[in-house]
Design brief:
The protein is of the alpha+beta class. The chain has helices at about 5-20, 25-40, 40-50, 55-65, 70-85, 90-105, 120-135, 165-175; strands spanning about 105-115, 135-145, 150-155, 160. It has a four-stranded mixed beta sheet. The protein is elongated, with a radius of gyration of 21 Å.
């Protein structure tokens, strides 16, 4: 059986293409977020899995719950997902759509781990430096990890910048052992 990310990819790409052609990336992002949230509801998941419900009825559940919040194209998208038994992949489809959207808009996600809480000025300075370094808009996700002792550890895609005291101490230990 294929991985959910592999199965979801063509649907995410199709949604992205529709949204991009219509100039509605933000609107589609909102609609997919709402659809993914509905798909996570326990009762809705039971309806998706119920073999006695037709594809049209399952799609109707989504469309009626989000009445007025979906465009005609998005409603058709839901019907296609229902017909192909892919409604359970809405969370993954949304994630992949967001990656495509961020790439188009020049945005990169940054996982920032700090030994201490960062204030607004520190975070703003860090984001500005990262944007200058990457040439892209940076969207930070900040968490506190006291085990870093001091400093920050930043993950940008597949690149890691570890300026933590813990990493520096580990490097010093390695150097002293050599």
């Amino acid at each position: 059986m294929a991985e959910p990310s592999t199965v979801a990819r063509p649907y995410a790409e199709a949604a992205f293409k529709l949204a991009d052609q219509a100039g509605a990336l933000a609107k589609w992002s909102e609609m997919l977020a709402a659809l993914a949230q509905v798909a996570e509801n326990e009762r809705v998941r039971m309806a998706i899995a119920d073999p006695n419900l037709s594809d049209a009825k399952v799609a109707g559940v989504f469309i009626s719950i989000l009445s007025g919040k979906l465009s005609g194209e998005a409603e058709n998208f839901v019907r296609v997902l229902a017909r192909n038994d892919r409604l359970s992949l809405l969370h993954e489809i949304r994630q992949q759509f967001e990656v495509l959207k961020d790439k188009r808009e020049g945005v990169i996600e940054a996982e920032v781990q700090s030994a201490f809480e960062l204030d607004e000025a520190q975070l703003k300075d860090l984001v500005q430096r990262l944007e200058k370094k990457t040439g892209r808009k940076v969207r930070p996700h900040v968490s506190v990890d006291r085990e870093l002792i001091g400093g920050v550890k930043i993950v940008l895609g597949d690149k890691v910048i570890d300026g933590s005291a813990r990493a520096q101490l580990a490097a010093l230990e390695t150097a002293l052992k050599a």
